[in-house]
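During the no-cost extension, the postdoctoral fellow (Dr. R.K.) reprocessed legacy sequence entries with the updated structure-token encoder. One reprocessed record is reproduced below for audit purposes.
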Amino acid sequence: MSICRLLISCPDAHGLVAKVSQFIFEQGGNIKEAHHHLDDDNKLFFMRIEIDSMTLNCSIDEFQKNFQKVAKTYQMSWRLSDASYQKRILIMGSKATHCVADLMHRDHEQELDGKIIGVLSNHNHLSKIAKWYEVPSVHIPVNQETKDDDLAKISNEIEKFNPDVIVLARYMQIIPEELCDKYREKIINIHHSFLPSFIGADPYQKASDRGVKLIGATCHYVTSNLDEGPIIEQDVIRVDHADSREDMKKMGQDVEKITLAKGLQYHLQDRVIVFNNKTIVFN
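Re-encoded structure tokens follow.
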């Protein structure tokens, strides 16, 4: 079976679900999965449909050309993707290995709807993991004295990898604005905090100091506004007064791994639509 995914966002209008479904029926398409959501406050409609493309009575190109007429009528922003295409994943990391190792193993076990094509790091801690999983790795240090040149090297290296999505697996550097713009909604970060609480560095110490009872992790798209990008996935775990900062860090790392993997998988499966600074996630 070959699946294509149709994602739609548009102003709300009467009969949108029926209109789209009827169109797919007329092209011979069999709907395998469908989700939709109405944002009442903004009067916006969002929809995700999986279609068995083997049942279509036309080519994919013809399907897109014909659907363009419907899209124009209802002022739709839309895209059609081939689910069989394995999106190219570039991991960017630093010293922490837990998220990188977890994603590498999931890729090795073919649990991701994509393929890790490389690891780019500002420290050399990840080279052994990448080598074990037979994934190319590049080490480019970032020094304060040569930061502009180093960032230019990183940008060139990213271009060589030609990724569909970049995963910041605890990459402890600020991404330049031009890269954020170039890869808009294609850079995914895991933040070791339940944003917007405890942004910035060392959230576990801040959480311990405040005596919080829940710690968590946030997977979000990267924007030029630090730690303020659209949130894809979040999770929490309960702690108490007996847990030290190190205890929280160990528990938090488990949450980080799961949250990042879920958020990445939602992106790989085209389950995320972004509008303004929030997401619709059809999970």
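The domain at 3-82 is CATH 3.30.70.260 (Alpha-Beta Plaits). The longest strand covers residues 30-39. The remaining legacy entries will be reprocessed before the final report is submitted.
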